[in-house]
């Protein structure tokens, strides 16, 4: 989760995606092989947003689990590069949102909302 000036960066899933088309979501991805979670977060940020994260050693923000997924969320307050839609096949666009704006969005998974609001408070 990229956080800047009280806002969070979300990606809008492409309308042709199988799961949650057109919904807003935190950038995320899959771990490759034995890749540690922080390295996977850094790789995914580069692939999806074109930024190099500067993660400090800390505990993850939180974790969500479902029937067929498990996601660990990290917060980044500093990075190199300007976030952009570096994965246009996956996302329609990227945008910054305040905590107040999140409630009006179609989110891919509303269970992430408390985690994001906590990170922005």
Descriptive overview:
This protein is 21% helix and 26% strand. The radius of gyration is 13 Å and the shape is globular. It contains three helices and eight strands. It has one domain: Alpha-Beta Complex (Nucleoside Triphosphate Pyrophosphohydrolase), CATH 3.90.79.10. A hairpin with a 4-residue loop joins strand 5 (62-65) and strand 6. The strands form three sheets. Strands 1, 2, 3 and 8 form a four-stranded antiparallel sheet that branches. Strands 4-7 form a two-stranded antiparallel ribbon. With 121 residues, it is of the alpha+beta class. It has helices at residues 37-49, 99-102, 113-120; strands spanning 3-4, 7-13, 24-25, 52-53, 62-65, 70-73, 79-80, 91-98. The relative contact order is 0.27.
């Amino acid at each position: 989760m990229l956080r800047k000036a009280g806002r969070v960066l979300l990606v809008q899933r492409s309308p042709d995606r199988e799961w949650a088309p057109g919904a807003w979501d935190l950038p995320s991805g899959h771990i490759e092989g034995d890749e540690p979670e922080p390295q996977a977060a850094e790789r995914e940020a580069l692939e999806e947003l074109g930024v190099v994260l500067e993660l400090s050693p800390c505990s993850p923000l939180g974790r969500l689990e479902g029937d067929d997924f498990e996601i660990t969320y990290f917060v980044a307050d500093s990075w190199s590069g300007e976030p952009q839609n570096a994965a246009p096949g996956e996302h329609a666009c990227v945008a910054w949102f305040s905590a107040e704006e999140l409630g009006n969005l179609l989110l891919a998974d509303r269970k992430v909302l408390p985690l994001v609001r906590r990170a922005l408070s």
